[in-house]
């Protein structure tokens, strides 16, 4: 089955460009387009896309609030990839904290765009560039540190979280730590449960904000 994608951007040329790039792939299908975040929830309910490529800044409802609305009202929710012009955008980080699964620059090369959609759809690796890791670290606070301490990760779970923060997939973590793939999946699930994280993006945000891992 192809990966189905909903494009959300107030610029028609951006939507047209993304559609052309994605639909050139045999395993990706663009099933719909929206010009504003206000249209996202009904379109997600109707089309049930695997991935929503969501612009951050839109006139009526921005990508942050649209992400929150999807995650609050649609079950199971699609994967959400925020798309923006600026890499060091606090809005992007806020969208990730709201529950988005990854990040893509509008100026990315076609191969990078296709890879990003496939990565987000698979859900076992991370689109979280260094600039956003720095923002996460700068937003560190005592509440995040206390939550990490309360999670009481085992030594192995802690090491798995560090590898997740590097952006490694489950298969890459397994190869790095010399573990079986199912064992890694078990540890990742345990880390998410202990941190109360919806997905690995939220877990990695918690890791940086708490100081458990640091950029670099």
Q: In terms of topology, how is this protein built?
A:
Layout: E1 3-8, H1 12-23, E2 28-34, H2 40-47, E3 51-55, H3 63-73, E4 79-84, H4 90-98, E5 102-105, H5 110-122, H6 130-138, H7 142-151, H8 155-165, H9 170-177, H10 181-195, H11 200-209
Parallel strand pairs: 1-2, 1-3, 3-4, 4-5
Helix pairs in contact: 3-4, 6-11, 8-9, 8-10, 8-11, 9-10, 10-11
Describe the structure concisely for a colleague.
This is Response regulator transcription factor. With 216 residues, the chain is of the alpha/beta class. Helices cover 54% and strands 13% of the residues.
Q: Which features would summarize this protein structure in a list?
A:
single chain, five-stranded parallel β-sheet
Descriptive notes:
Strands 2-1-3-4-5 form a five-stranded parallel β-sheet, sandwiched between helices. With 216 residues, it is an alpha/beta fold. The protein is built from eleven helices and five strands; from the N terminus they run E-H-E-H-E-H-E-H-E-H-H-H-H-H-H-H. The longest helix has 15 residues. 40% of the residues are buried. 54% of the residues lie in helices and 13% in strands. It is globular, with a radius of gyration of 17 Å. Helix 4 links the parallel strand 4 and strand 5. Helix 3 packs parallel to helix 4, helix 8 crosses helix 9 and helix 8 crosses helix 11. It holds the Pfam family GerE. One of its GO terms (biological process) is phosphorelay signal transduction system. InterPro entries: CheY-like_superfamily (IPR011006), NreC/VraR/RcsB-like_REC (IPR058245), Sig_transdc_resp-reg_C-effctor (IPR016032), Sig_transdc_resp-reg_receiver (IPR001789), Tscrpt_reg_LuxR_C (IPR000792), WalR-like (IPR039420). This is Response regulator transcription factor.
């Amino acid at each position: 089955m192809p990966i189905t994608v909903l494009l959300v951007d107030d610029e028609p040329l951006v939507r047209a460009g993304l559609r052309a790039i994605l639909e050139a792939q045999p395993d990706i299908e663009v099933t719909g387009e929206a010009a504003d975040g206000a249209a996202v929830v009904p379109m997600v309910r109707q089309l049930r896309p695997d991935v929503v490529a969501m612009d951050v800044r839109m006139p009526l409802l921005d990508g942050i609030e649209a992400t929150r609305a999807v995650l609050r009202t649609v079950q199971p929710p699609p994967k959400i990839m925020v798309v923006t012009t600026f890499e060091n955008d606090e809005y992007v980080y806020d969208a990730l904290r709201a529950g988005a699964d990854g990040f893509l620059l509008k100026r990315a090369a076609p191969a990078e765009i296709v890879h990003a959609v496939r990565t987000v759809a698979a859900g076992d690796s991370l689109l979280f560039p260094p600039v956003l890791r720095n923002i996460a670290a700068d937003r560190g606070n005592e509440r995040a540190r206390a939550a990490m301490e309360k999670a009481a990760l085992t030594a192995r779970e802690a090491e798995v979280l560090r590898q997740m923060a590097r952006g490694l997939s489950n298969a890459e973590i397994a190869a790095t730590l010399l573990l079986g793939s199912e064992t890694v999946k078990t540890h990742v699930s345990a880390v998410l449960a202990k941190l109360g994280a919806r997905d690995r993006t939220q877990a990695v945000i918690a890791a940086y904000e708490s100081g458990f891992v640091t950029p670099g």
